[in-house]
Structure formats: structure tokens, C-alpha cells
Amino acid sequence: MLGVSAHSTDGSAATNDKQIAKVKAAGRGHSYADYVVEVAATDANPAAAAALSTDAPILFVSFDKSQAAHVDKYATVSEHFKSWPQGSAIITNASGNDLASTLLLASLFNRQIHITDVRSADDLELIDLSRSRGLNVTCDVSVYTLFADRLPAIDGLNKDVAPLWSKLSAIDCFTIGALPAQVLKSLNVDGVNPGTLGYQVALPLLYTAVAEGRLQSTDIVERFCKAPRRIFGLPEQPETYVEIHQDRLAHVPATANDLTWFADLSSKPVRCVVHRVVMRGKTVFLDGKFYDDATAEPMGRDLGYVLRTMSSGPSGKQLAQGASAGMLGISTAAAGAPRDIAAAPLSPAPVTKVADAEVADEADAQRPASPTATDLASSALIKGSAIERPLRENRLADVLARYGNVNPFYMKHVLSVRQFTREDFHLLFAVAQEMRTAVQRSGQLPILKGRVMAAVFYEPSSRTSSSFQAAMLRLGGQVFTANSETSSVAKGETLEDTIRTFGSYADVITLRHPQPGSVQGAARFANVPLINAGDGIGEHPSQAMLDTFTIREELGTVNGLVITLIGDLKNGRTVHSLARIISQYKNVTLNYVSPESLGMPS
């Protein structure tokens, strides 16, 4: 559901504007999954393909001569690399000598490239070697290639899967791919729609590998959800997730189409059952059955118009060295009361929601992350030997574009969390993820170069004051500070006069004051945005936003959590703001524990 590559209606790849228009027309209002239209490279269309990149933002370079649209000459690949817009995705199924030549050309033209449907450990080793030498290359392997030892023998598929599993760390993404259809073709099976194959098989196979100790749950979430979103810039899908019974032994029904190509399933059960698939809040699959046309509404969208500039996934080496703190594993949910929590020991036959940190009601099913996030454990968050790649500043604009190009924070005072909706916070957190990724990769994201912040603190502060200053400096701006002892306040200057004066010096003011409501009063005299950094026992909105962001990053979601606030709730300005933000999420239980005299204000 995170985006599939769409071809023309006869199954071949689109190579010209008429075919692409046909694909888009067929998908509009009729697709049950989100999709991205790609243009196929041929020896005859380098210039024409580049002209179609707006409508079909992925270039697919096929070396498979059984496909009508393919390339025969490396000179053609060179021409495509030369003319295809920088930053737009290039995918190829090159292998062997074709892969080596394609990687060389990608290096010469400084192109990022994604290798799809990798089927040999030798190709993975070459990809990993190229990555270690600085080439921006990512790859995917079909789930079924990893389990080829359980499939019928077909040309080009090695049934010795041990070498592939030994190179798991080099694999960025898992995919479904064309392998089920190729097996059907080799078996001369008719009357089965290849598009329905594998839905009962892919996740069960992977979770069987988890039970066998060959994979971890976080590997599945990362490679199936977060990494594709991050690499191809796929947008988040609100309220979209998959629920599974992770520990249940599964026997695929004898009537299932999957047994026509994966007969081994009837004798060797798997450990996982897909319970439900929800897309944008609507159930599209439940307990082995798709909702039919009478009850299902085609909700698939063309994602090409929101596709971000191609990014990079963490290398397999990075994944092998450990997941980042922001990476959600698998979130378990008690039957009948779904909720997302951090990875935890599984009880017998739990219902598990495979969720990206941004999708399971954000929908936090994730960043995934993620991908992804978005999103959104990025390669910058995982310490390793992979090549650091700068994040383009326009990724922030891309985030805004996904939210309708409406910025609720632009030139606004930030005085109370009551000013903002949950959707506003989602946007803020998405931007924060992108900024964090950029800063951790490059040390700085100079989008505020030439801007000045006044840090005005009438109370002692270390973390809040330092964090505001560090943020401004990391974004390329400058800071000056003032407090009640070193400013004209010591000579009797009023807060209003101080704010008026500093507003003429700075582009933004952060203010901490011991008197509740003082920041709101000062905002009336500010001609630049004013941020409440704490006003007595009133509110501390920025701290509460950071706390909520951290909960999402660590646990994957705020929805469905039980959160207990303990201590002096009457005078704790941070908990006042935090409780108001958290209460905007779904199915959250807030417990207050304090002496009666220090209880939470109404």
C-alpha cells in the first residue's frame, strides 16, 4: 500500500505519453492500492522519457529481453542517465555484467540508482562494494527469492538461498515483485490473476523467519515500509496499517490461488496470519477475504505528484549494526483493544500491528517510521560506515506540500498548545524529522542564515535556553541573549518596552518569564513571532511538543497509550501543556498522581 509501480493495461511498461496517459486514466478511481507510474527506458526514447518525468517520475531500465520495453546497449543507458532529471528515481533490474556496467555509468554520471529484484548473492556483494566506494545505490530483494528453496524450479532462480540470507545486511528493501507471476507462467497455469498472488504468503513467510531466528520484526518494518518510503520519497498514509496474528500457525486454504504456485505451503505451514488490512481508516481485507466491489471503494491514488526527490536508505551494514532510537519495531495490540506500543515480548497468539512510526493513525504504521518518514529512521540516525549524503533543503517544502502547503506556524506567536490541532503537530513533527536528519548528516541546515533570535530569559534556564540557541545556530541563524540582571529591566524597563525593543533587533523572540500569562501579554507588543519558553506555572508549549515528539519516536505512536503524570501537577507548566496535546490523540488514558493540594488544575 506504500506505492506500487504501474504499467500499461497489457502488463508492459509505458514508454510514451499516450501509454502513460492510459495508465493514469485506468488507475484514477479504479485502483485499490496507491501507485506510481513509471516510464520504461528503451533504445529509442532517452529524450522522450526525460520529457515525461513530471507525469512518470520513475525511470525503469530493464535488461530483460523477454519484456517488450528493454535496453540492449549501454550507450542507451548512458543517454538516459544523461537526460533524466537529477533527483528523480532510476530503477533497474540489471544483474551480472549488466549490473556492473550500470553501476559504473551511475558513478560516472553521479546518479543515485535502485536495483530491483536482486536474485544472487554475487550481485548483492557488488552493490555493497559500490556502496562502500561512495556510490549512492540501494536495492531490493523479493520475499520469494529468499524462500526460493520452497518454490518450483524456474529459469533464473537459484534454489540455494543460504548465500542470499548471508548477505541480508546488504538488502535495503523487501518487495513482492513479479516472481509469483513468473512461477505461474512456468507452470502454464491459466485463470489466476497475478495481482492477487502472495497476499497470504509474504508476511507469514517473513514472520516464520523471525520465529526461526533469521530475521527480527524490526527488519520487516524497516525493509517493507520505512526504507521504501525514505528512498523514494513516498508520502505517509494516515490510518493505514496491517494487523497480524504473529504466532499462529497458518495453513493456506486449499482453494487459495497461492497454492497454485506455492504448493509447498500445503505441507509446511507458516507462522503468521494476516488478520486485517486497513487503508485510510477503511478495512479492505479481513480474515482471508478482500471486500468485494459492492462494499469496497477504490482508494488508490497516483503518488507521482507528491513524490519527493529520491533519498537514500541506510545501507545494510548500518541495519546490521543496530536500529536507531527512532525506529519502531513491531507494536502489539491486545485483541479487541488495538494499541501501539514498543517492541515487547509476545504473549501467545497476539494480534500484531505492523506499523510505521508515522502511519497507525498518523497512522503510525514507520515512520512506518519511517521508511518514512518522513518518517522515519534515516541512515543518519544509525552510526555506521555508510556514505553520508546531504539532505536537500527542498525536502522541507515537500513536507509542507503533503499537508496542502499550509503552514499553521508561519509568522505566528507560539503561546499555548491550545492554538494548534493534532494535524498541526503532525506537520511540525514531520518537519522536525527532516531537520534532524539533515543536521545529523551535515551538522547544519542553513535555512535561517541571516536571521537573528533574541533569547530573553527572566528565569534561570539551562536546557531550554541552550536548546533554543543550539537549534537556531544549527539552522544557520544567530542568537543574542538577555536576562533580568544584565538588561535594562534592572533599571526599571517594563516587559512591554523590552519586547518592543528586541523586536526591532531580532526576527524571533523566545521568552521565559516567572509570571503566568506574561508571555501572552507581551505578545501584544511584539512585531515578530514570540515563542513561549515557559511562563511561571502557566504553560511550556515547546517542551510539551518535544515530549510528544519523543513519545512518537520511541513508541511509534501516542494513540492508545496509558500515560501517568506524577508529581506537582498544579505548578508544573510542562504537564499543563503536555496533557492538552496528548488529549488530542485517540484512545489515550491520562492518569494524574499527586497530593490533593498539588492536583492538576481543571
List the helices and strands and how they pair.
Elements: E1 4-6, H1 17-27, E2 35-40, H2 46-51, E3 58-61, H3 74-83, E4 89-92, H4 96-108, E5 113-115, H5 121-132, E6 137-142, H6 143-146, H7 162-166, E7 173-175, H8 179-186, H9 202-211, H10 217-232, E8 241-250, E9 270-279, E10 282-286, E11 289-290, H11 316-321, E12 331-333, E13 351-354, H12 394-402, H13 422-442, E14 452-457, H14 463-474, E15 478-483, H15 495-505, E16 508-513, H16 518-523, E17 530-535, H17 541-555, E18 562-566, H18 573-582, E19 589-593
Parallel strand pairs: 1-2, 2-3, 3-4, 4-5, 5-6, 6-7, 14-15, 14-16, 16-17, 18-19
Antiparallel strand pairs: 8-9, 8-13, 9-10, 10-11, 12-13
Helix pairs in contact: 3-4, 4-5, 12-13, 17-18
Q: Kindly estimate the percentage of residues that lie in beta strands according to DSSP.
A: 15-25%
Q: How would the global form be characterised? A: globular
Task: Provide the structure class.
Answer: alpha/beta
Largest sheet properties: 7 strands, parallel
**Which regions contain 5 or more consecutive residues with pLDDT less than 50?**
6-11, 312-393
The value of Rg in angstroms is 26 Å
Proportion of residues in helical segments: 25-40%
Distance between the termini: 43 Å
Mean pLDDT score:
77
What's the count of strands? 19
Helix tally equals 18
Give the spatial strand order of the biggest sheet.
1-2-3-4-5-6-7
Protein name: Carbamoyl-phosphate synthase
Organism: Linderina macrospora
